[in-house]
């Protein structure tokens, strides 16, 4: 894997990509970023929460069905897939042209999740499966608090095993995300002017 921290370099990589993977802790804005990239690049946005993992009533799909759905989406020619699930990364990474990893401080993730819960309390947010109203509990908050220690090592293992030339764009704040989108707008706009 090739770590990319510069947003201008990342924008150049992204503008030519047909298959992007957006990963990161809950509350980091994976779906929001994926939607914005989808609008700019014309790539279909696949939400792991909405399209792969969850059934109404917060019921997790059976593992074989998750694998089948993930495999089918990954086989498509063009996509942005947002979501973590380190266990399904081997299904997505072989076809991914670039990974965007949102690695925000946990306090930012927690703050964002609480704000999201207040905004969508009792409602289903757009990137979630039907019949799964927004919820928050101690288990979910603990998952976020421990994400970097518990989930990131496995993510790194999968990224390192994927291939040497895989660009992994690391964003550590909402400012980085906004800068990337601005740089992407410039890169796309500059290409259109030629």
UniProtKB/TrEMBL annotation:
Gene3D superfamilies: P-loop containing nucleotide triphosphate hydrolases (3.40.50.300). InterPro entries: Cytidylate_Kinase-2, P-loop_NTPase. It comes from the Bacteria. SUPFAM superfamilies: P-loop containing nucleoside triphosphate hydrolases (SSF52540). This is AAA family ATPase. It comes from Agrobacterium cavarae.
């Amino acid at each position: 894997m090739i770590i990319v921290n510069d947003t201008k370099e990342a924008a150049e990589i992204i503008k030519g990509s047909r298959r992007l993977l957006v990963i990161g802790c809950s509350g980091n804005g994976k779906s929001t970023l994926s939607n914005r990239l989808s609008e700019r690049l014309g790539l279909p946005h696949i939400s792991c929460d909405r399209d792969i993992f969850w059934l109404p009533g917060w019921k997790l799909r059976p593992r074989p069905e998750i694998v089948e759905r993930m495999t089918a989406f990954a086989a498509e020619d063009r996509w942005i897939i947002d979501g973590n699930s380190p266990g399904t990364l081997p299904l997505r990474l072989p076809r991914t042209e670039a990974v965007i990893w949102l690695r925000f401080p946990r306090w930012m993730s927690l703050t964002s999740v609480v704000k999201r819960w207040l905004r969508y309390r009792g409602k289903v947010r757009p990137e979630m499966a039907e019949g799964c109203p927004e919820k928050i509990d101690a288990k979910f908050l603990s998952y976020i608090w421990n994400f970097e220690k518990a989930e990131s090592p496995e993510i790194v293992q999968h990224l390192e095993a994927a291939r040497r030339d895989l660009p992994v764009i690391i964003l550590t704040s909402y400012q980085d995300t906004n800068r990337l989108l601005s740089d992407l707008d410039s890169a796309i706009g500059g290409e259109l002017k030629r």
